[in-house]
TrEMBL record:
This is Pyruvate dehydrogenase E1 component subunit alpha. The keyword Oxidoreductase applies. It comes from Deinococcus maricopensis (strain DSM 21211 / LMG 22137 / NRRL B-23946 / LB-34). Keywords: Oxidoreductase, Pyruvate, Thiamine pyrophosphate. It is an enzyme of class 1 (oxidoreductase). SUPFAM superfamilies: Thiamin diphosphate-binding fold (THDP-binding).
Amino acid sequence: MTTNSTADLLQVLNEHGEVVRPDLLPDASTLTMLYRAMRRIRHFDERAVVLHRQGRMGVFPPYGGMEASQAGTALALTPEDWLLPTYRDTGAALAYGLPVSTTVAYWRTSPHGWAMPEHLKVLPFYIPIATQYPHAVGCAVAEARQGTQNVAMAYIGDGGSSEGQFHEALNFAGALNAPCVFILQNNGWAISVPTRTQTRATNLSKRADGYGIPGVRVDGNDIIAVYHAASEAVARARRSEGPTLIETVTYRVKPHTVSDDPSRYRTEDLTREWEAKDPVVRLAAYLRAQKLWDDAHEDALQSEIVEEFEAAVREADTYPEPSPTEILDHVFAEPTPQLRAQGEELRREVNA
Ligand SMILES: Cc1ncc(C[n+]2csc(CCOP(=O)(O)OP(=O)(O)O)c2C)c(N)n1
Ligand SMILES: [Mg+2]
């Protein structure tokens, strides 16, 4: 048993393709917009894994199967809002507007991918677990103090929600009424540790109760429900009604990263069950049944997505290989004496 059963969840389009909350169904153009976004980020995920095999991409944490959870949340934002993604959330960053070429460069460890475009308020993918949560509160409070209606949306995993900074941030955000939307993607695993092993809590959204803020639990493979919950939370934050925690219940059907082998710590029966709840397939089937989508739409979208991706890779291919010492160049505006010494040592080693 895992903690992420689909009981007690907000759903609109369930895993059987039934609309269970017709009152929450958006219009046709929103539905196709959500589908297009999921297909686009799925393509990136699939191609990133292939490029890694070809030696043209660094270590990459796939998010395939979690597209609804990522696009459905990020699409509730505008570029005036902050996005604080983790290494798992490439799909969210792309849906928010991070250019594909910057994203490819980032996962190639090229310095071109380290600096995020100035017109977007997206922070670099967080690798240290949970550190982004207090930062999001800081971004949100800064916006509120400047009198804007902008919000900060931060992502975390089930594993990250066991870290102290997760709890500190939720408390801080509640106390300061920060315009923050906390996305907790419960994908059942923290590398090889199942959720049930690291917590006795079975409903992670309830953690919000401890901090006096609303907690919402949503089917993370139903983009309609996710988008609805995220849009509501963003609207609340913009109205100065404070933070929300949204648990998107999903599953990591992929390995932790492309260098992980899940067969060493799990059997794949449950993975097959979750693959049958695929968010992209679910919405496609619904759109086709409603005659909102057909093969011609799919082919046109596919060509558009492939073209965008290939152009981005061609651009990223023009970025020069970084020198080993460049890793220290962008840490501080003014390097510390220690960093300068380390740089000199590294340069001596490289030149030797
Ligand atoms: C502070 C910190 N501790 C440990 C790690 C090592 N680590 C990398 S990923 C990971 C698991 C995180 O699991 P979860 O939060 O569920 O995110 P997921 O990978 O499932 O998206 C751990 C422990 C880290 N990156 N940072
Ligand atoms: Mg996880």
